[in-house]
Amino acid sequence: YRQFLLVERALSLETANGWVRFIDNFLSELFGANALKLSELCATDVTAFIQRHAHRNSPSRARRLVTSMRSFLRYLRRQGLINVDLDRAVPKAARRSLSSLPKHLPTAAVQRVLDTTRQGTAFRKPGRRVCLS
Prior knowledge:
mainly alpha
């Protein structure tokens, strides 16, 4: 699978190794030291693994986990090692555009917040405009 990622998918060595680590964890957790019986994989195995591990990671790492798992299962199907399209069992990783706070606010947005502050508070003196540069 690593060779496929490097040659066919043209992924960097670092990316390929990261994806293979996810797959190694999946297979180790599922089969342990026993022989790999890939033909016995089922959708429940896939979704349970993702559900157990995705929430433990950052959102970007969870997306890499999901992507690598989907890629691996497609690879197994293409190679004839499994007979079912298990990649469909991989849940989508949430991608929330508002999941983190912005690093900064534009000056105009800060000014709007300040303009809506009640006058006469300790923060803002009556009739005094706060200017941002």
